[in-house]
Design brief:
Radius of gyration: 26 Å
Helix content: 25-40%
Distance between the termini: 20 Å
Shape: rod-shaped
CATH topology of the largest domain: Umud Fragment, subunit A
Number of domains: 2
Strand order of the largest sheet: 1-2-7-3-4-5-6
Number of helices: 3
Order of helices and strands: HEEEEEEEHH
Length: 180
């Protein structure tokens, strides 16, 4: 590989590796900072959190929750997770009432303090689609294959350089130590 092609190749693979590392940090690495990651699947919180957004939720004490805060919580026995805005808090019964920003009426059932997962601290639009896709079998296979291809792309120039060096060495030996 000539030097210009190798520089371009290295630039492209560096950008690809950086993108993969950034995606891994955004999807998994944030857990080290105490954040949980959830995907917005419905339009009930639009425009604050559009469908397909990835939200990052920080665990908080229910006592720190205030009216007007968005809250992420377990909605029902099927462990469905929702994010809606707090519209009222009943500290005596340890529950709060919620409403989606795009909904006309408050949610029918109160949410017990024990079901609170946390408060969203930021979101990234559209990244939730990627996160959901790579959690399904076809997406997982594609992600693993893409990782393998990326590794191959990173090490491919070295493979070609080794072959070239071996040929040069063999040619030098065949010519009696002279390099022609």
């Amino acid at each position: 590989m000539n030097k210009t092609v190798k520089k371009i190749w290295n630039g492209i693979t560096t950008v690809l590796v950086a993108a993969v590392v950034l995606l891994a940090v955004l999807l998994v690495g944030v857990r080290l900072a105490g954040l949980q990651v959830y995907t917005i699947l419905s339009g009930s919180m639009e425009p604050t959190y559009p469908v397909g957004s990835l939200i990052y939720v920080k665990k908080i004490d229910p006592a720190d929750l205030q009216v007007g805060d968005p809250a992420t919580f377990v909605l029902n026995e099927e462990l469905v997770v929702a994010t809606h805005r707090v519209v009222d808090i009943d500290t005596e019964n340890q529950c709060f009432y919620t409403k989606g920003d795009a909904n006309d009426a408050p949610d029918a059932s109160p949410v017990h303090f024990n079901n609170l997962l946390g408060k969203p601290v930021f979101s990234i639009p559209y990244l939730g689609y990627v996160a959901n896709y790579i959690q399904t079998p076809p997406g997982m296979y594609i992600a693993i294959a893409a990782g393998g291809v990326l590794l191959l792309l990173v090490f491919l120039p070295d493979l070609f350089d080794d072959d070239k060096k071996k040929r040069r060495k063999a040619h030098t030996r065949a010519c009696g130590g002279r390099n022609e």
